[in-house]
């Protein structure tokens, strides 16, 4: 699909009923005769502590996946037997209209969302009772901890608070055309945001100015919500994986690592770029950039439906070892270094994760108890299906607190040349991250942000 074609797809409605049917099919793999109702609630309005203003609203992703509705204080019921979707919206509160304006009406909601009927939240209990009595011995499927106290399931013979959440998480892994279009738009806007950061690089005095450049571009293009707190890490701070300060001065620092992505209708982009503040990579910075760039290109080339993500991640380490050996930072036999897992000192995180309604999206099945240092922090395990979207984000970092224990260890220390390593501390860290759609025969990169070293330098110096 051509980059701008996402706009034509997004003229349609979010395919919520297709998602509901998919979720039902998944539930029925575990419960073949499953019938009854799927029940979900949106995020409720909540005031800030000691304040009469509401907390920042973030829609519950499970609710959104089955409704496409981004309104607060709503409910949803899906009649499995009738394949009927019912959205419940808050009734109009006349005293609130002067403050907040008219809310979405029932007629408007029926046009906006892929549902069969729109009712008010005052109708929830009578409607659930009716659905339960219509289908004796039916089950209500809901999510534990996400059902209001005033909602009653008394008429249902069975209540299941586990299957729905698990099924939605499985369903969300494979994206349909509309979801991919949302992610294309999030990537398009975020990539323009990254370009704005490059254009600001040589004149910015503080990290926060670069953050402002990214946020300003995204908001101006209609993406007011960020998928996560942006990371703008100058110099050695780039070795802190989830750096949050974004406030340090940039003077005297070689590079900046920018990990930032906007949302479009709750779907995330997650993009990282690393670049020289001066507009010209130093020798050491370019050395590391080229290693990481090769890690990413080689790994993207491996991606297609059914590939084992562990294998792609392991290949990233193999490329890292070869690159660091060629620079003299590592020494010895490549296979021995891999077997010892010494490269985890420089590449300690996973290669990537699923992306969608959440930045670290569901369905990845990580194993935090894995004793293998290469895989312990990998957020995605197993084989990736066509239609999933993954991040590919290799990195090489020079963090003293991680590397020093390796230097002091007799097994790892013999593979690291500290004299050569000393030349690279100021590089901080390099990470390059794109969002990749998995296809049957390969993949498609959704991210257009500049990453060719020469192009990066040209944009900064323009």
Automatic annotation (TrEMBL):
Keyword flag Chloroplast: no
InterPro entries: Aminopep_P_N, Creatin/AminoP/Spt16_N, Creatinase/aminopeptidase-like, Pept_M24, X-Pro_dipept-like
The keyword Protease appears for this protein: yes
SUPFAM superfamilies in the record: Creatinase/aminopeptidase, Creatinase/prolidase N-terminal domain
MF terms (GO), sorted A to Z: manganese ion binding; metalloaminopeptidase activity
Gene3D superfamilies: Creatinase/methionine aminopeptidase superfamily (3.90.230.10), Creatinase/prolidase N-terminal domain (3.40.350.10)
Catalytic activity, EC: 3.4.11.9
Summary of the function given for this chain in its UniProt record: Catalyzes the removal of a penultimate prolyl residue from the N-termini of peptides.
Protein name: Xaa-Pro aminopeptidase
């Amino acid at each position: 699909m051509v980059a701008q074609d996402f706009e034509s797809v997004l003229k349609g409605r979010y395919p919520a009923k297709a998602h509901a049917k998919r979720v039902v099919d998944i539930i029925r793999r575990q419960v073949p005769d499953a019938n009854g109702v799927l029940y979900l609630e949106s995020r409720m309005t909540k005031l800030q502590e000691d304040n009469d203003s509401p907390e920042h609203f973030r829609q519950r992703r499970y609710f959104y996946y089955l409704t496409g509705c981004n309104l607060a204080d709503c409910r949803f019921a899906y009649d499995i037997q009738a394949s009927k979707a019912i959205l419940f919206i808050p009734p109009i509160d006349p005293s609130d209209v002067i403050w907040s304006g008219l809310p979405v009406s029932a007629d408007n909601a029926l046009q906006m969302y892929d549902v069969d009927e729109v009712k008010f939240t005052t109708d929830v209990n009578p409607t659930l009772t009716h659905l339960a009595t219509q289908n004796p011995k039916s089950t209500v499927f809901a999510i534990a901890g996400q059902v209001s106290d005033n909602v009653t399931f008394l008429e249902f013979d069975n209540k299941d608070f586990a299957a729905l959440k698990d099924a939605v998480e499985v369903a969300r892994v494979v994206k349909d055309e509309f979801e991919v279009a949302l992610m294309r738009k999030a990537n398009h806007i975020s990539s323009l945001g990254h370009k704005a950061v490059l254009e600001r690089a040589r004149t910015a005095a503080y990290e926060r100015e670069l953050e402002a450049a990214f946020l300003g571009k995204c908001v101006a293009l209609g993406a007011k919500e960020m998928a996560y707190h942006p990371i703008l890490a100058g110099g050695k701070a780039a070795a802190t994986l989830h750096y949050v300060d974004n406030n340090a001065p940039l003077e005297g620092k070689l590079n900046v690592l920018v990990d930032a992505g906007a949302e479009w209708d709750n779907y995330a982009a997650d993009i990282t770029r690393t670049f020289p503040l001066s507009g010209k990579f130093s020798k050491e910075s370019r050395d590391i950039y080229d290693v990481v760039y090769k890690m990413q290109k080689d790994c993207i080339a491996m991606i297609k439906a059914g590939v084992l993500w562990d294998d792609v991640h392991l290949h990233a380490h193999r490329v890292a070892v070869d690159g660091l050996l060629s620079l003299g930072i590592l020494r010895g036999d490549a296979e021995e270094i891999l077997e010892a897992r010494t490269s985890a000192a420089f590449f300690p995180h996973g290669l990537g994760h699923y992306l969608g309604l959440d930045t670290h999206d569901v369905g990845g099945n990580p194993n935090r108890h894995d004793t293998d240092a290469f895989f312990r922090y990998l957020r995605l395990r197993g084989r990736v299906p066509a239609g999933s979207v993954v991040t590919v984000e290799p990195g090489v970092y020079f963090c003293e607190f991680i590397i020093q224990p390796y230097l002091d260890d007799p097994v790892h220390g013999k593979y690291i040349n500290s004299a050569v390593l000393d030349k690279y501390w100021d590089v901080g860290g390099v990470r390059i991250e794109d969002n990749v759609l998995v296809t049957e025969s390969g993949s498609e990169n959704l991210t257009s942000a500049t990453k060719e070293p020469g192009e990066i330098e040209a944009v900064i110096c323009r």
